[in-house]
Amino acid sequence: AFDQNGNIFASYIDFTGFDVSPFAGGVYVSKSNDGGLTWNIPVEVISIDSDPGKMPIDRPWISIDRSSGSGQGNIFITTMNAKNAISGFNPYFIRSIDGGNSFEQWRYLDTTGWLAGFFIPQPMPTSTVSSDGIFYAVYPSLVFAQNPLAQFIVASTENAGNSFNYQSVFSATTNVTDSLAKKGYLLRADPSLPGHIAFFYLDVPFGDIDVFMRESFDGGNSWSVAIRVNDDPIANNRMQDLLWADFDTDGDLVVSWRDRRNAPDSTYETASAIWGTFRSHDGPAFSQNFRISDFLVPYDKIG
């Protein structure tokens, strides 16, 4: 991620692996102020032992406040439990208020009434910071006392994490069960319109995996209905995954994903290409999908 001055910050995991005894590791951040040619000594964000037994070092995502407000330059890292962690499970939030020179004590991103719960072993949060300096993160939850269905929850803070507000994005009536699909979801903020955030995810309401978006124009208090992003025939028995998306500075939006509409069969292990779509900041709908890859790539098993 870039700060307001063009410095680059990279967050990453350094871990021995479970085959080393005793194993060790953590999440680190390193800074480059010359466009990535050289990097400073890494700073530890959170250790595998910071929350004993919970191993809170997986999926470190970084976001930086580039607003003109008092939080400008604050760095936020979110993580989740690694595999083999003891329950219950939580998303984690850690901040730096000194430009990445140090990181403060971690805290759980979820809270009473908005817990991730015991049934989702890796409740990954995806985060963003809006142009007016508000931090947002979405994470999954399954706690029957909170909601009889699984749901995505959005946490937001206007004071750099001193306190959070919570809302439900939506409850999930379907579930992507394919173990091979890259099921990551993504939250993005529109730099041109404070309060406009968009959540991208995979779902299977038509029997195969499609890419969807829901958006909020009031800072996550209310959300649109699901918008299907890929435009191949509905229920054509072809799966999509590996989504990515971003806004440009004036609010134009591009979404991309790994597409199998022209594949010979319905499985993960088949040919694919990267496709995308575009929506103008003042446009009502996404464009016709277009292929980004030069050609269809045959599946090649690794290892």
Q: What features would you highlight for this structure?
A:
single chain; 303 residues; mainly beta; four-stranded antiparallel β-sheet; globular
First-to-last CA distance: 31 Å
Helix and strand run: EEEEEEEEEEEEEEEEEEE
Overall mean pLDDT score? Answer: 96
Number of strands: 19
> What helical percentage do the residues reach?
under 10%
Strand content: 35-45%
> Count of DSSP helices?
0
Oligomeric status of the shown chains? single chain
Q: Which overall shape is indicated by the principal axes computed on the Cα atoms?
A: globular
Which stretches of 5+ consecutive residues score pLDDT under 50? none
Written account of the structure:
It is built from no helices and 19 strands. By secondary structure, it is mostly beta strands. The strands form five sheets. Strands 4-5-6-7 form a four-stranded antiparallel β-sheet, with no helix packed on it. A hairpin with a 7-residue loop joins strand 12 and strand 13. It starts with 7 loop residues before the first strand and ends in a 12-residue tail after the last strand.
Report a brief summary of the structure:
It is built from no helices and 19 strands.
